[in-house]
Structures
1.
Amino acid sequence: MADVIVVGAGNAAFAAAVAAREQGASVTVLERAPRELSGGNTRFTAGAMRFAYDGVEDLRRLMPDLTDAEVAATDFGAYPQAQFFEDMGRVTEYRTDPELCEQLVTKSRETMLWMRDRGIRFAPIWGRQAFKIDGRFKFWGGLTVEAWSGGPGLVEAWTQIAAREGIEVLYGARAVSLVCDDAGVHGVRVKQGGRTRDLACGAVVLAAGGFQANTEWRTRYLGPGWDLAKVRGSRFNTGDGLRMALDIGAMPYGQWSGSHAVQWERNAPEFGDLGVGDGFQKHSYPFGILLNARGERFLDEGADFRNYTYARYGREVLKQPRQFAWQVFDAKVRHLLRDEYRIRQVTRVTADTLEALAAKLDDVDAARALETIAAFNAAVRTDIPFDPNVKDGRGTEGLPIPKSNWADPLDTPPYEAYAVTCGVTFTFGGLRIDGRAAVLDVDLAAIPGLYAAGEMVGGLFYENYPGGTGLMAGAVFGRIAGTSAGMVAAGRSGD
Ligand SMILES: Cc1cc2nc3c(=O)[nH]c(=O)nc-3n(C[C@H](O)[C@H](O)[C@H](O)COP(=O)(O)OP(=O)(O)OC[C@H]3O[C@@H](n4cnc5c(N)ncnc54)[C@H](O)[C@@H]3O)c2cc1C
């Protein structure tokens, strides 16, 4: 019998397992997926993590490998806690739970250092989050650091740390329900290799992800049409952890009708493909325009840095006829397109004239598309200089749907267009936890022996999300949940 059982083997789960172990608890991790597909959504990420830092010295503490030459060639800026709070507030329309948000922001830097001290390495995200202007990189959008070797590297690092710490990980082990009585949770019923058994423990940490991979729950909670979305990541996050907790009276919390959803390759498979990772996403839309089947624009592509719009624009694409759009660019911005535009598995058309391009846009009203582009080109404030590193204010004038920044006439061939649909990343609805990450019941009392972390925590995100916050939240609340579970478990498991 383990003191603590952690359900899931993504970033939040491993943070919880390691933190519980540090409290002296013995820990067993249950991972539903086989070893080669393990790691949940975490494995699909680029490993980008948002945390508060006051300047380059904070980054040097996190990344001691940074050289003087790299520091000299880069403007890392700062991302103070106040800015992180402001971003969380603004993008969630000030609905984010203040206590959860406070923990996330104020514990972000110390949690990154805690991860580094355990052996997780980080690197600056040159290229994706900083463009080179006049020989110097400048970071923008509060997202500066990623885990070494991205999501796969992060999962691998956690797996090695867990092994070193003597944490047992059972693969192909699906938690099906919680073992509990009036005194709280005492174990997990698990199905592994076709056999169901009960594993006893002193405390359980649920870190089994959201319900984005469950078509029926998506339709039920996110609404009609969401059954047609692609799933960006793990097919194993079907809401099991949420169901298990709700079954014993846990309180649902947060925006159950909301999700993180992005523009995603139109012809991508139903679930994420670990061979492609996050390569199906198409995040350079601020430098082009989007056209739907009617040949019309339908959102402000340049409303903000992509970090602050990308997570809600998938939903906007889902609302369009036949759930697709084309992202259109000209040669002037080609060098700004992220590397995901150059993968093999991409639906792209190119042409030397706009007329030829419009004719190649599958399922689009070509005549109307040309009118839209002409109107857009005529509306651009070309008197304002284009600058991808700042919100340049180079917008459009007089269009029913403006483009607020980085507007540039489509006038330089060759032209390119990429077909996208909606890819759902994770769902926002979850469980209600207290400051120790204990799961609350419907009377708002803590359920003894039950903790939650990661995508399963409700109340942090509403409507939108600042890029890089999912892994950070998973680490912060995973560490808190594991610490709490570890502290109480040894005592309880002796009951
Ligand atoms: C393509 C993509 C790119 C992303 N990029 C970023 C990024 O760069 N930065 C960022 O911050 N966020 C990113 N995200 C979001 C990020 O992946 C999540 O917010 C984060 O990984 C969630 O961590 P988690 O531990 O809660 O869940 P997960 O990592 O999904 O882990 C859940 C675990 O639970 C397991 N599980 C499920 N059901 C059961 C069960 N019944 N029994 C046992 N185990 C079970 C799963 O197999 C999995 O191991 C991205 C997501 C995707 C899909």
Note: The first helix runs from residue 11 to 22.
2.
Amino acid sequence: MPELPEVEGVVRELSSVSIGRTISEVQVSDVIRRSKELGKEAIVKGITLEDFIEELASMTIVNITRRSKYIYFHMEKNGLPYLLVSHLGMSGAWFNVDTLEDVVEQKFRNHVHVVFKMADGGLLVYSDIRRFGELRLLQKEGDYIPLLKMAPEPFDASAEDHFIAMASLPKYARKPIKEVIMDGHVISGCGNIYATEALFRMKIHPGRAAERISEKRKRELFREIVDVLQESIDAGGSSISDYRNINGEAGTMQTRLKMYGKKECGTCGKETKSMKIAGRTSVYCPQCQR
Ligand SMILES: [Zn+2]
């Protein structure tokens, strides 16, 4: 699943190749069409396909930014601003290509769901193998309330105090620390990979209750999370499972991971253990993490 660093990588690459370009035509897959007919909403959410296709045509991409794990395409049409919000889900990927054949890996080419034909002739392609991704066309961020409820960006000055305040609320204090740091209302964009790594670096057991960690240690943990996220952004993200950047390339952060997906601890050599926390597999070292 792409996490914050991978999404940041996609945003930077998309920005460099698509700002200023105009969409001339939108195509969606038969899978999306059938899903809409069945009253479900695969990928394209909160809008009819007719409106999605018609409204996006002639829109210009003015800017692309990241908010937590969402990609924000800031659009403009007839002088009015729009916001196209993209979440990559488990396996979503954007490709900037001349033709669909240029989506090199077959598994991505077989699951192309949305194609923006650009006025200059190229294609901006959204592929999603497992179809957990989302595309929403809004006028502004506030039109989709969950976007307003996300914690501050982890790199914002206010994010650390926000985390400390949230983690001490009765709602979170007794929960396992790993569940708390992975909650998007508490910290933005700290998914399983980076939560696992930050807890290992801090020698904190993922199942320890938030209230049983001192404020000083919590602040250190927060800074460790920020460091791990920044390191991964610098490394082009981790390429666990199906993450690809817009050129179809994988990142290198996975080679630096010390605990996520490991069978034994890199520090003490002991066999790692795993437990389910908030439905996610949590790997940890029973010796190093308390
Ligand atoms: Zn260990």
Note: Residues 265, 267-268, 270, 285, 287-288 surround zinc ion (CB under 6 Å).
